Amino acid sequence: MNCTKCKTKAAIKLPRHHAAFCKNCFNGFVHDQVAKAIKSQKMFGKDDRILVAVSGGKDSLALWDILLKLGYKADALYVNLGIGNYSERSYEKVRDFADRVSVPLGFTLHTHTVEQEEGAGIRELAQLVHRPTCSTCGTIKRYQFNRAAIEHEYDVMATGHNLDDEAARLLGNVLHWQEEYLDKQGPSLPASVEGFAKKVKPLYRLTERELAAYCVLNKIDYIVEECPMAQGARSLLYKEVLNRLETESPGTKQTFYWGFLDKQRKKESAPTTMAQKDQAMLRSCTTCGQPTTAEVCSYCKLMVRAKTPASR
Ligand code: AMP
Ligand code: FES
Ligand code: ZN
Question: Which residue, 118, 158, 172, 222, is the most exposed by fewest CB within 10 angstroms?
Answer without folding.
Answer: 172
